[in-house]
Amino acid sequence: MTTAQLQALDLLLIVLSTALWSTAAVMTASMRAQSGRRRGAAALSCVVAAVSVTLGRVAVVALLVGRGWWFAGEKVLVSLPLAILTCGLAAIVAIPFLRRASAGTVAERNQPGAAAAVFAAAYASAGGLLVAFVVGYPVSVVAALAIVALVGGLSGLTWLGLSARRRPGLAALCAVLCVVPVLTSAAIAFYADIQPVVIGNAAGAHNHLAAGSGSAGVGAEVPGMRSVSVGDLRTPAEYPGPVRRFELTARQQTVTLPSGRTVDGWTFGSLPGPEIRVEQGDLVEVTVYNADIPDGVTVHWHGYRVPNGEDGVAGVTQDAIRPGGSFVYRFVAKDVGTYWYHAHQVSSEAVSRGLFGALVVVSKDNAPAGQLSTAMDLVATVHTINGTTMVGGTDLVDTQRVLPGSPLRLRLINTDSVPQRISVTGAGFTVAAVDGANLNAPTPLVGQVVRIPAGGRFDLSLTMPTGQVTLGVEGAPETGMLLVPDEPPPADRAIAPFVDRPDLDLLSYGTTSVVPGMTSTAVNEEATLVLDRQFRFLNGVPTLSQTVNGDVHPHVPPIAVREGDLLRLTVVNRGSDTHPMHPHGHRVLVESRDGVPITGSPLWLDTFDVRPGEVWQVLLRADNPGIWMAHCHNLEHATQGMVVHLAYAGVTTPFTLGGVADNRPE
Ligand code: C2O
Ligand code: CU
């Protein structure tokens, strides 16, 4: 069974045991002499079933421990002890009573105790759900104590009620146990949430959330550490090489799509925005204007290793550009490959409404695109706006004529918040590059589906055959791409069906090779991110949030690095959603997934999908000082808290979240 299935099974068993204990409790309490035989027998079988389900949970949790302590910590420490304790009590007190009852001899005098014990087991069982969604990992001690107190208090009140005893002192104590710890724990969480946060790691703390240690802490300050502001981490004014200038103006725009549908977009003039294509070694200078986006705008260069001050994150590396304002971004195009740019102020809304475009850097000896009749280089963004999926600029099929025999590079960019599965039929292909980085000796594929994480890019390379090639997107039958061998032009309503095949697994694709310097023995810093879904205060409001190590943005302690560090990042997904994790300003080298080392080409990614129950280990070379966002690129999840920062020791930022500029990066 997969880890995700085990986690789901555990939840199911919690619900089942709660239902069984509750039924047994109600039956036990409502038993009368005349109905004793039947009810007693039924309640007894419910109790026996509930006990076995609880034992089943013990087995499932033991298996989860085997998958990693992250998946089971709070169960082992809190919910199972509570369940086992109450289960034992119920078994000792209730089973003998129910035996006698089913034999026809109800000893009324023992009934309240027996029923209360079964109720206690029901409360403890239900408490397991609270533990799963409130305590989480690492165990929040305050929340755990509050739940234990609540179960104890409710059990006591139930016993007093059933036995009709007048013990006001005890009743008051139980009531206090029910209410005070819960309120205190909520108040503490609320207070922590409204505290102002200073983003970054100016003091030079180390990571204390190493694998399984379960606590975040702050290290000692480093004497004599150099301090620098993100505002100073910009591209120098002088550049000896060619400068390429672009302008992007963000505006509200009603766009009529080729199908005739209209959408209320926010665009950089078109949907998608203009493609920025430069040669390696160019200095790219982009002036961004905000015509009338009320929330403000910034531009982030997704996957591109720019200086921190050019990273375009509102509230971290700059203030959002207000309507009428502008900002000039400058960076040297050092890396070749396929990237993209997008707004990083209210990004979840801004990107989906259209504030994005492709960024392509080709090497000097590549002929410029456009004039390439025999070596075509096509970009296809896959984007869903208002429920309509578009490939490139169309929600219909993008048809391109290609000379048979010509080599073709197809740059696929997933600008959505969920993975996209894409099929190519009619020709074999290789995945030449992922997230801009070339793969080592990729082998030809036929009819395989590529699953591109949210924010990820796949460059496919193929040779145009004499027949047509179709590119289909799962779940979007109206759109796609059709490559036709020269004349005749295709029928006016072309289709490009998605053909379902197994997904290509990049971790075993291509040929292995050693990457100098990136070995596990060179690792000198470790950090673990445990991703989950938990009830937390989010901007002061209790929300089912997306958490990192039990916290939500901006309260997640940063991943601390010093320049030159080799960081091993372990990312654990305890939730039930896929999390495409994206560190800014760096790319990571994949080491392993679920403990299995990578066997294919070295894989440099800037966006990697951590699916439910998965554990990824990746290496990151800290070679680009700054304060870098690292977040889930399901941008909804980012707004729900799944954001952390990769913070270099000594780097500070003059910008803040909120404030006059109303910076809201997610
Ligand atoms: Cu594609 Cu934080 O970004
Ligand atoms: Cu996510």
Report what the structure shows:
The chain is α+β, with helices and mostly antiparallel strands and 666 residues long. The chain is built from eight helices and 33 strands. The strands form seven sheets. Strands 21, 22, 24, 26, 27, 28 and 30 form a seven-stranded mixed sheet that branches. A six-stranded mixed sheet has the order 11-10-13-18-15-16, with no helix packed on it. It is elongated. About 3% of the residues have low confidence. The site of CU-O-CU linkage (C2O) has 10 residues, from strand 6 and strand 31. The site of copper (II) ion (CU) has 7 residues, from loops.
How does the SSE layout of this entry go?
Elements: H1 3-29, H2 36-67, H3 73-102, H4 111-135, H5 141-163, H6 168-193, E1 228-229, E2 243-256, E3 262-267, E4 273-279, E5 283-290, E6 300-302, E7 326-332, E8 337-342, H7 347-353, E9 356-362, E10 376-385, E11 388-391, E12 397-402, E13 407-414, E14 420-425, E15 430-434, E16 437-438, E17 449-452, E18 457-463, E19 469-473, E20 480-485, E21 525-538, E22 541-548, E23 559-561, E24 566-573, E25 579-583, E26 588-593, E27 596-597, E28 604-605, E29 608-610, E30 615-621, E31 627-632, H8 635-639, E32 643-648, E33 651-652
Parallel strand pairs: 1-33, 2-5, 4-9, 10-13, 12-20, 21-24, 23-32
Antiparallel strand pairs: 2-3, 5-7, 6-8, 8-9, 10-11, 13-18, 14-17, 14-19, 15-16, 15-18, 19-20, 21-22, 24-30, 25-29, 25-31, 26-27, 26-28, 26-30, 31-32
